[in-house]
């Protein structure tokens, strides 16, 4: 009974944490509107939080690739994917070089990540399969759907022109799209933290077993 209670309490705690994160995102949007109600710039709290979450995702997956031989190819591939998204989010700064310059570093990162994944494709597939089996993968999948599909559909100008007609303002559709993107990034970040933490625990357990076997083999 105590075990069942602990499971339920952990689920309730997870709900509270996620609810606070969701409320925090609306708070960030309110902060942006308070300072500039007519523009959601690259320096807005919503945009900056997206970039910070992406940066932490890249660090997390590359750290997993560094510390786990078992996960290295798959984690490199996933980390490369999020690195490309981060580069795309920073396009306004990279346009200083020339318009559309973000494509150059994004292609380089994608090429490197894909080459590592292809070179060890059996291990890559194994790592991706482990990720899919993780109890946190559902959250990651929901986050990706929110980020790559739902936010884009909700950000279609034609939809908001139909809804608002003469009252259409581009700022409204951009605000909805960017806030949904942030929500997607939050889901991905929370799920990825669970996946990476679980993977590192398995790696430590595997290493401890290998160390114990080595010690026994000496006798």
Short description:
With 219 residues, the protein is an all-alpha fold. 84% of the residues lie in helices and 0% in strands. The longest helix is centred in the C-terminal third of the chain and has 48 residues, at 170-217.
Can you walk through the features of this model?
It is a single chain. By secondary structure, the protein is mostly helical. The protein has one domain. 84% of the residues lie in helices and 0% in strands. It has helices at 2-35, 45-67, 72-89, 91-94, 103-119, 121-133, 137-154, 157-164, 170-217. The longest helix is centred in the C-terminal third of the chain and has 48 residues, at 170-217. The N and C termini lie far apart (44 Å). The mean pLDDT is 87.
Tally of distinct domains: 1
Largest sheet: none
Beta-strand share of residues: under 5%
Number of strands: 0
Q: Helix share of residues?
A: over 70%
The Rg value, from CA coordinates, equals 21 Å
> Regions with pLDDT < 50 over 5+ consecutive residues?
none
Name the shape in a single word.
globular
Strand and helix order: HHHHHHHHH
Oligomer: single chain
Query: Helix/strand/pairing class, anyone?
Result: mainly alpha
Mean pLDDT: 87
Q: Provide a count of the helices.
A: 9
**Span from first to last CA?**
44 Å
Keywords: Membrane, Transmembrane, Transmembrane helix
Transmembrane segments: 7-31, 43-63, 70-90, 96-118, 139-162
């Amino acid at each position: 009974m105590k075990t069942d209670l602990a499971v339920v309490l952990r689920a309730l705690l997870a709900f509270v944490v996620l609810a606070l994160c969701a409320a925090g995102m609306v708070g960030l949007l309110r902060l942006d509107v308070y300072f500039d109600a007519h523009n959601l710039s690259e320096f807005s709290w919503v945009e900056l939080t997206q970039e910070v979450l992406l940066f932490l995702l890249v660090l997390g997956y590359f750290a997993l690739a560094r510390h786990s031989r078992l996960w290295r190819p798959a984690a490199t591939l996933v980390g490369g994917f999020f690195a490309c998204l981060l580069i795309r989010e920073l396009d306004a700064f990279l346009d200083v070089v020339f318009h559309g310059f973000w494509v150059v570093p994004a292609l380089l990162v994608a090429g490197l990540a894909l080459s590592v994944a292809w070179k060890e494709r059996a291990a890559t597939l194994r790592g991706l399969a482990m990720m899919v089996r993780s109890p946190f993968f559902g959250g990651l999948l929901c986050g990706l759907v929110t980020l790559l599909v739902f936010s884009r559909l909700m950000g279609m100008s034609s939809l908001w022109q139909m809804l608002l007609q003469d009252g259409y303002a581009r700022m409204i559709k951009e605000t909805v799209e960017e806030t949904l993107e942030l929500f997607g990034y939050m889901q991905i970040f929370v799920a990825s933290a669970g996946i990476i933490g679980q993977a590192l625990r398995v790696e430590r357990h595997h290493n401890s077993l290998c160390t114990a076997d080595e010690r026994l083999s000496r006798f």
